[in-house]
Each structure stands twice: as C-alpha cells, then as structure tokens.
Amino acid sequence: MKLINLENVSKEYNDGFIALDNVTCAIDQGEFISLVGSSGAGKSTLLKMIYADEFPSEGTVYFGGRDISEIKRKILPHFRRNFGTVFQDFKLLQQKTVFENVAYTLEVQGKSDAQIYDEVHNILKIMGMDDKSDKYPYQISGGEQQRVSLARAVIHRPRVLIADEPTGNLDPISALSIVKLLLKINSFGTTVILATHDKSVVDKLNRRVILMDKGRIVRDDMHGKYIISG
Amino acid sequence: MKTIKLARVLREGWQNFYRDKWLTLATVIIITLSLYLIGVAIFLGFGVLHVIDSVENRINISMYFDFTVDENKILEIKKELEEKSIKQIQSITYISREKALEDFMKQEGDSKEIKDALDMIGENPLPASLVIVANDTSDYDGIDKYLHQEYDEYIMNTNLEKNKGVISELQKFIVFVRNGGILLGMLFAIIAILVTLNTVRMSLYAHRKEFEVMRLVGASNLYIKIPTLVEGILYGFASALLASMFLIGTIFAINPFAKQIIENVNIVDFYGKNITQVILVMIIFGITLGFISSFLAIQRYLEK
Ligand SMILES: Nc1ncnc2c1ncn2[C@@H]1O[C@H](COP(=O)(O)OP(=O)(O)O)[C@@H](O)[C@H]1O
Ligand SMILES: [Mg+2]
User: Fold this and answer.
1) Is the minimum distance from the CB of A41 to ligand 1 under 6 angstroms?
2) Ramachandran quadrant class, A165 (left: phi over 0; alpha: psi -120 to 50; beta: rest)
3) Do B202 and B252 have their domain in common?
4) To test the ligand 1 pocket, which listed residue (A6, A9, A14, A17) has its Cβ within 8 A of the most ligand atoms?
5) Domain limits at B120?
6) Is the ipTM of this complex over 0.90?
7) Does the model's pTM come out above 0.80?
8) Contact yes or no for A82/A158 (Cβ under 8 A)
9) B20 to chain A: which residues are within 8 Å by CB?
C-alpha cells in the first residue's frame, strides 16, 4: 500500500454539485506530483480529501493504510500535523508577525519556546525571510508572504506538503523561487502535491502529472507535460 | 492542556484584543453603549424606588385615643403591638396630646387667631395618637380592621377612612411604576444582551478565515476556543469600565439640573452611595456577557 490511496472517491457538495466523480489514485512517499486541470476541475476538492478538510461522499481515502473518515474528531488536529498546506492567498494570520505566524504551528503542538525560537529562525533562513521576521504580513510582498506561508507549512516536518496554486498570485520570478523551494523540500523526502495552472512550471519539472477534468482524472503520466486535451 | 499551552492561549486572547485595534474599538464601543443603557436603567430604578419609598413612608394611619385613656395605657398598647411583632407594621410612633398641639401650631405658623381660639377653648382639643406606618400600602386596610377589633373601646377614631382614596390611588400608581420599571429594565437588558451577542459574533466573523488557518496548521478546538473566550471577557471588561465612567460622568453632568428641578436633591450624593456596587455589577455583567457571547459565537468555527 502507498502513502496515500484514493479508492473510488466521489464528492457531492451540499448543494448537490458533484465535484469528484469516482476518483482512484495512489501517491507514494517522496513523490512530487503536479495536479493540473482547468478551473473547477476538482483539484482543490481532491486535495481537501487528502488533508481531511472535507470527507468523501462515497469511496475511501487511506493515509498510511488508515481510513481517514474513521479518524475521531478529537484526533483530527493531530492527524493534520502530517500535512503542511500553502494556498494562493497565503492565509497568514494578519495580526501576527512573520516569526509568530511560523511559530504558531509549533506552539499548538506544545513545543518549548527555546526550541521554537531556534527552529523558526532556521526555517526562515532557508526561505530567505529571517531578516523580516518582525514584519507583519501587510508589510511584505506577495512572494515574501508565500515564502513565510511555506515556512509555516514545513516547520513541523510534515510527511506531505500540499500546495494549492501557490504561485497563482505571484509574478513569474517569485513563482519560480517558490517552485525551487518546493523542489528543495521534496529533496529532503517530503511528498509534495502541487495543484497549479502554471504551464511553464509543470513543463520544467518533468515529474508526475495528474490531469483532472470535470471531477475525474483523465491523465496520469510519470513524466508529464501540461497538456489539456479535449 | 499543558501549562505552556495555557499561557499561550491566554496570550493569544490578549493579542487578539489589543492588536486588532479598530475591530476592538468598534466592538467595545457598541458593548459600552449597551451596558451604559443598562446602567441608566438601574440608576433610574434606584431613583424611582427612592421616590416610592419616601412617598410610602409619608402614608400612615393614625389611631386617635379617647381623652379618657391615659398616657400609660397608650404606651402599653404601643408596647403590646410592638411585641406582637405584626409583620405588616413597619413602625409605631407615639404622639402625645402636647406634641400634637405643638405640631399643629407649627403647621399653622403660630397664627394669632388660632392661639386666641385655643385660649377660648381653654384646653388642648387634640387627642393623643399612635402613628402607624405599614410595610406596604396594601396593608392599611387589614391594620385598621385589626386595631378596631382589638382596641375599639379606647379608640376615638382612626383616620383611614379619610385617606382611603389617596392610599388606593397611590397603591395603584406604585404598582404600575414598579412593574413598568421592571419591564423596562428587562427590555433594556435583553436589548443589551442581543446587541452584545451580535457584535461579538460579527467581530469573530471578521476573523473566520483565521480560524480555518488555525485548524489547518493543527490547532485543536480548545486552542482556538480559549483565546476567543479571553477576547470576549476583555471586551466585556473594557466596556464595563467605560460604561461606568460615562455613567458617573452623566450623574455629575445632570446634577445641577436636577438641583434646579427638585430642591434639596443632590444626585451625586444619592448615587455615590451605590456607585461601587453598580460598577461591580456592571463589570460582572459585562464579563459574563462577553464570555457567553464569544462562547456561542465561536461554536460554528470549530471542528464538528
Ligand atoms: N463547498 C462547496 N460547495 C459547493 N460547491 C463547491 C464547493 N467547493 C467547490 N465547489 C464546486 O466544485 C467544483 C470544483 O471545485 P474545486 O475543487 O475548487 O476546483 P479547482 O480547484 O480545480 O478549481 C467547482 O465547480 C466548485 O464550484
Ligand atoms: Mg482550486
């Protein structure tokens, strides 16, 4: 069994819209996967199934061989610590500084202040943001905010990094630097799932590409290019 | 939850409160207004109760004794009544014939004509009496009946008949004012509660995306909830302090006008006696309100 298995997963939202239609796929530890497809294809929904933000209407999602829908509500916050997430809109806490945003992930886990101090400055250095650790999100650029968001997503060494259109709001240069950081994170052994619109990014990667359309997986290439067919 | 986490959630709550200054300001202003409204209602209530009390204390029933009954007997009856400790009776005062005359003269302004008239009569025409104040205006009927039943042989007359109309009118008015006051106070309180609930709900709504982020990075329900409760408590506390200040300011501001309208009234003195209690009640009420409001409002943002 792989790290993540989706078996015949369908998702019907409350309003009756079917966002995922009988999706089956498996993802291995250490993979770097690009999830592509036009807007509304179901990429975000598929990702939410994996980090347990939404649950399947039908079918099963397994993480490490365990059925996600059977995880008790109280355990869910702990389960989510297997993941790091970054989004198009960064989702930084506006009332917290760069340092505090990244520290938050470790604070909720009850790590000591000394350990938090070291690890946060360490990761901010890797992301090239250590000199801005006392700034608030509105005081830094979009590319910088995304790097902070990335730092927050990986500081607790998650097994899987989920990146949902992380470059969607960024200029090409910032976007490239984010993708480079994603590759670096992947090289340390973290599984990366990247949902994106960005053709140039995907083509350069030469990694596995899953193409979605209308809630289904229509292509799954181990060394794919961004091709939308039909 | 470990102590380190407890310290952190308390700090989170404080940061929510003081970092988002505009939201905090808006929230606190609205809650302050609600609490101020309640404070005004309480103070008006105090005032009205005081007026009712003083009016009620002016009502009494006088039991006039035959001239043949001597002072010792009257004092005996007074003692008897007191010892029976009839629960409807608040106080009994003995007015001797001499005192009655003195009061009467004073009331008439020591007029020459009255003095002459009295001189002509040659003796004090006023009877001795026991002045009885009831606990409640509705008790006078019963007291009057009781007095006649027990002491009819000594009584010249009681003045209840004469006052009956006034007493029953007053009684209706007092009941009306009291019930109206209670109703109005309750209405104010309900409005304040609803406004606070909604205000806190809106201020949390402004942060709804952040709760989602907190869940995503692995924060437990408690870790999200406790800072919010702290925030609510701080809103309530700050608002209560502000509302109290405004309330005190209001009293000082209207004191000169009140003095003009009613003589011998100093509302600063009058309310000064209750001010600490009122502030305390406001703070407790504010904190409870803030706590409950955020408790209810945060519920929908937690993991179900
Ligand atoms: N909470 C929701 N309720 C109803 N419909 C939704 C919800 N979330 C997403 N959808 C719909 O599901 C479809 C797929 O959405 P999404 O997974 O976000 O697509 P993508 O990320 O590929 O753009 C879209 O048509 C969207 O409108
Ligand atoms: Mg999407």
Assistant:
1) yes
2) left
3) yes
4) A17
5) 59-162
6) no
7) no
8) yes
9) 95
